[in-house]
């Protein structure tokens, strides 16, 4: 990913949230998400990044259709010896075309030197949970609330052992 990709990645992320989290988060929260504001935050993070977060893009015919980010697992602000998938989103118009599977497989492969990879997923997001379970991830019992528009939305942690 390059700095110039931030606008498209933010578009995919925001549209992905609005599609995947409908009915799981307040609609007013989802409707209030701003691609421009997300892109501005993404560019700022890019400028301040220390290289520990890796951003992957899925492209077809030169157009960015998916994005994933991974790096060291964050246990609060403490980094552990494990990896974490921070995000994975595909343009909703291209769901089911294998882009998400390809991004996830690439992230897992690139993290193969870690003992484990973690990720967080909304408890009520059954399609995402099935997606991760088919890829060998399993819930490990940890849960955390995520606040969206004043509403607590529970997330569950998934883990997959890696060759490490």
Write up this protein.
With about 160 residues, this protein is an alpha+beta fold. The chain contains five helices and six strands, in the order H-H-H-E-E-E-H-E-H-E-E. Strand 1 (about 55-60) and strand 2 (about 65-75) form a beta hairpin. The mean pLDDT is about 95.
Structure at a glance:
The chain has 164 residues and is an alpha+beta fold. The chain has five helices and six strands; from the N terminus they run αααβββαβαββ.
The structural class is alpha+beta
**Spatial shape:** globular
Number of helix segments?
5
Provide the gyration radius in Å. 15 Å
| Biggest β-sheet: strands ordered side by side in the sheet | 1-2-3-4-6-5
Total E-strand runs: 6
Strand content: 35-45%
Distance between the termini: 26 Å
Percent helix, as a range, is: 25-40%
H/E series:
HHHEEEHEHEE
User: Taking all residues together, what is the mean pLDDT?
Assistant: 94
The major beta sheet can be summarized as: 6 strands, mixed
**Which residues sit in consecutive blocks of at least 5 with pLDDT less than 50?**
none
């Amino acid at each position: 990913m390059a700095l110039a990709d931030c606008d498209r990645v933010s578009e995919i992320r925001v549209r992905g949230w609005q599609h995947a989290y409908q009915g799981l988060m307040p609609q007013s929260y989802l409707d209030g998400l701003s691609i421009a504001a997300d892109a501005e935050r993404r560019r700022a993070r890019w400028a301040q990044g220390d290289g520990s977060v890796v951003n992957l893009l899925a492209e077809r015919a030169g157009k960015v259709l998916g994005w994933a980010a991974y790096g060291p697992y964050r246990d609060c602000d403490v980094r552990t010896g494990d990896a974490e998938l921070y995000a994975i989103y595909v343009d909703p118009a291209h769901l089911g075309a294998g882009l998400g599977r390809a991004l996830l497989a690439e992230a897992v492969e690139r993290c193969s030197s870690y003992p484990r990879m973690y990720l967080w997923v909304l408890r009520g997001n059954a399609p995402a949970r099935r997606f991760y379970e088919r890829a060998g991830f399993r819930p490990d019992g940890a849960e955390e609330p995520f606040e969206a528009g004043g509403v607590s939305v529970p997330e569950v942690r998934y883990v997959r052992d890696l060759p490490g």
